[in-house]
């Protein structure tokens, strides 16, 4: 009886259905968001907007009437807001850097493979050029053929001059 209740290794386990579904996060979509966020935070536009925000915050809380101020001089709430922004920005920037590192690894591997193929192609072409040089060394050159043909032409001319003299009746 205990054997029938025990899970067997050759059969898959049944999946449990939970009452509350866990939220599913598309890692790629979140990574794209993190990259765009990190890219935006690295611009002069972001720095300008952030500087204007902080300056407006400080000006409002210093120059506004007392009953309209919401963050007095030590600007604790501003510090809290900036810390919150930094606490979210840092992991997003790290995520963007990790994704960029993975892309760089893929590109580096592709470059390495392309370099290996180019090296193999160059070695092959070097062997082909060497074999062509050796084959050309064994082939008759144009100058060699011309000299041989001139020699044969000279022999033919000598033979043609001798033939009329050697003929009987002449």
From TrEMBL:
Keywords for the protein's UniProt record, in alphabetical order: Membrane, Transmembrane, Transmembrane helix
Domain of life: Bacteria
Entry keyword Mitochondrion: no
Pfam annotation, one family: DUF1003
Residues spanning the membrane: 46-63, 75-95
UniProt-recorded name of the protein: DUF1003 domain-containing protein
Species of origin: Nocardioides pinisoli
